[in-house]
Write a structure and sequence with these properties.
- Helices cover about 35% and strands about 20% of the residues.
- Strands 1, 2, 3, 4, 5, 6 and 7 form a 7-stranded mixed sheet that branches. Strands 11-10-14-12-13 form a 5-stranded mixed sheet.
């Protein structure tokens, strides 16, 4: 599964800062609307324990990276142009924004929790804008965007379904396949709404709108990143609890703090692993007063208050939402190496329930087509093609090649 995260939100809320903090890319950062016009693509990383410590080996990662026994598994990410109300009607950068999200599996909605940007993304007085308005308007824009796609040639689609006996959920899934939406998403939405799947021509516009809303909710789940939380008035941060009680996944974040910590780490000023709850000073005597104050502010107002900057936690919440696991395929089950001699080289994010043979296909088509068996490296047991893999498994695949 090629996972993609979409970083969304109105202009000037810290989307590009979040993106830069979580990737190796460097999107332009500025304090005015529509800084991001073209979508930025990059790689974010999911944290998971690396088996290297358990097996007492020094790993040589190939498709991921390992920092002090924590494996960082790559995930594709896209930071899209800022969204404004009525984007589905073409306002702002409207449809371009929405179309850029077509393949995203999870959306991370960056919200200015400090209430210092208005509905259009313009700076305003701290605490003067209600961040809850951003939650509802994103849902509305996604719903209308999806509804517009569903409604295209709807009469023809509904009539064809009824006359030819074709399943409407399958026909809709084919129509929406470019959005990463599957037939089971449509079927679930039809059951939820109790719609008559045999007579889709009788569905009303309201039925189609509600259907679109539910398709969005299950095919593109949203994580709410309450950004600038360290600057947010208490009254606004309490709104995060309101949202949680309503079933939303809310994570306090400070993308600015995460980016500052990463840059300080790169310069050797501190020791910091992304997502950690603390950092260690390495060059305390060489810090300027401004640097020292900035780091102390992050320690006190971000890390101690929230336990982390929240950036890495948003990524991990997205993986959990999709119920993905990490497995480590190797060729040599004794030395844990691939054919190049690299130790524990690859870490794969796969859906829970993936079988050994399906993993073989993911590694290489030839391995899947000539699969004989696999070996669970921990137990040294032979496992068959239909064996469902577990999180953290190290698997050696044997094929007739």
């Amino acid at each position: 599964m090629a996972m993609q995260l979409g970083i969304v939100g109105k202009p000037n809320v810290g989307k590009s800062t979040f993106f830069n903090a979580a990737t190796d890319a460097h999107a332009e950062i500025a304090n005015y609307p529509f800084t991001t016009i073209d979508a930025n693509h990059g790689v974010m990383y999911f944290r998971t324990p690396c088996p290297c410590k358990e097996f007492k080996v020094t790993c040589t990662p190939h498709n991921s990276k390992c920092i002090e026994g924590t494996r960082f598994v790559p995930i594709e990410a896209i930071d899209v142009a800022g969204l404004v109300p009525d984007a589905h009607k073409g306002k702002g950068l409207g449809n371009k924004f929405l179309d850029d999200l077509r393949q995203a599996h999870v959306l991370i909605h960056i919200i200015d929790a400090s209430g210092s940007t208005d509905a259009e993304g313009n700076p305003c007085e701290l605490g003067s804008y209600d961040p809850l308005q951003d939650v509802s308007f994103l849902e509305k824009e996604l719903m209308y965007w999806m509804a517009d796609i569903v409604k295209r040639s709807w009469e023809k689609t509904a009539r064809q379904s009824e006359l030819e006996g074709k399943k409407i959920d399958r026909m809709l899934a084919e129509k929406l396949t470019g959005l990463g939406i599957k037939e089971e998403h449509i079927s679930s939405a039809l059951r939820k709404q109790d719609l008559d799947a045999l007579h889709p021509s009788k569905w009303s516009d309201d039925d189609l709108l509600t259907l679109a809303q539910y398709i969005c909710s299950i095919s593109k789940p949203v994580i709410l990143a309450f950004n600038k939380s360290d600057k947010a008035p208490d009254a606004l941060m309490k709104k995060a609890e309101v949202l949680r009680k309503q079933g939303y996944h809310v994570i306090p974040t400070s993308a600015e703090a995460e980016l500052a910590l990463i840059n300080a780490s790169k310069k050797g000023i501190i020791e910091y692993v992304p997502g950690s709850s603390s950092f260690q000073l390495k060059q305390a005597d060489e810090l300027s007063e401004k640097q020292r104050n900035a780091l102390e502010y992050i320690r006190e107002h971000v890390l101690k208050t929230y336990g982390s900057t929240g950036v890495q936690q948003c990524i991990e919440a997205a993986v959990k939402m999709l119920d993905l696991i990490v497995v480590y395929p190797v060729q040599d089950d004794v030395h844990l190496t691939d054919k190049e001699g690299r130790v524990l080289p690859d870490a794969f994010l796969i859906p829970r329930g993936t079988t050994a043979k399906e993993l073989a296909y993911k590694v290489h088509t030839d391995l899947g087509e000539h699969f004989i068996r696999a070996i669970d490296v921990r137990t040294h047991r032979v496992i068959g093609a239909d064996h469902e893999l577990q999180n953290g498994d190290v698997i050696s695949i044997i094929a007739d090649t």
